[in-house]
Amino acid sequence: MTDIKGLCEPRFAAVEEALAASLGKDDVGASVAVHLDGEPVVDIWGGYADADRTVDWERDTLTGVNSTTKNMTALCALVLADRGLLDLSAPVAAYWPEFAAAGKERLLVRHVLSHTAGLPDLSGPTAVEDLYDWRSVTAGLAAQAPEWEPGTAAGYHALTFGFLIGEIVRRISGRGLGDFFAEEVAKPLGADFHIGLSPNDDHRVAPLIPPPSLTDEFAAGAPLGPDGTRREHTGVTVRVRDANSVAWRRAQIPAVNGFGNARSVALVQSVLANRGSAGGVRLLSPQGCEPAWQEVFRGEDRVLRTPMSWTVGFGKFGNTFGWGGWGGSLVVSDPDARMTVAYVMNQMIDRERQEDNRGMEIVMAAYSGLR
Questions:
Q1: Angle at 161 between CA 103 and CA 248, to 5 degrees
Q2: Among 85, 269, 274, 278, which residue's Cβ finds the most Cβ atoms within 10 Å?
Q3: pLDDT digits (tens, 9 = 90+) for 53-66
Q4: What CA–CA distance (Å, rounded) separates 202 from 61?
Q5: Which pLDDT tens digit goes with each residue over 26-42?
Q6: Residues assigned a catalytic role
């Protein structure tokens, strides 16, 4: 049995058992956290931070969570909206005038947050290095025409989500998304999550490990649809080696390049599940949280090729909301139960080759503690 460290209230023993089982089977190193009523009831970790299994996964180990970062970026927009600085129903061009080009003058902020803006791909960048030039990428998006009439269809905005929301946040606050998140969210909460990682934290990073039998050339792509087909992907291809690079850590790619662990992911997202506060710190009003679980779009997602329900910033699954990242990380919040569950790991799984239920098994184990 793998040695599990940390805090786990007895009624959530099934969560610890699920993590131990995962570490004994598919995982190399991982952390799991459950917050209830804005307070931690599970904060556990185990395994190793490296593929050779020579370095222990520690309490403060960080790793890249890929698209689980989108939950953090969406929260930044909701914070501004709750403060009256951002109108979710206003045109993006009200804050970013150049964005009105190419028929986007009526494209709304909520369209961007719900993946219905019609801008799922970047038309300009072709190399990962191009993503590191914020002004070039956002200028390209401002000039780009939508693929469909905004609001009429959804298509997962894998990379563009972060640039679009990030530029809106920058235009309103004068700060990059990473700085805004650090100062307005992470610092008040004491959350060890970073969008743009400092060199001082490099020694704590557990590199992502490619799926079994694959190399660090393994690339992200739109998941296969139910018919076994994939939407034609255009633009930048992100590989494991890119996500593990120092340049990636320093960059601002707020859809995908956040670094944290389950503790920090659960802490931040529990703010929304707990009506605006966590650990005695209030970030939003109760009403300011509601867009996170109110459905904006339901139907076939043109990129994911599967039926989806999107809220303002999150995927909606029954009474829960949240999102996961390429390779397996996941955060799920339940506003009725006031519970948030997060799972963060370094061993990636390729869903095309192998079923990956690690995160959902953790979530289901957490629900058993509520009975």
A1: 130
A2: 269
A3: 999 999 999 999 99
A4: 10
A5: 999 999 999 999 999 99
A6: 67
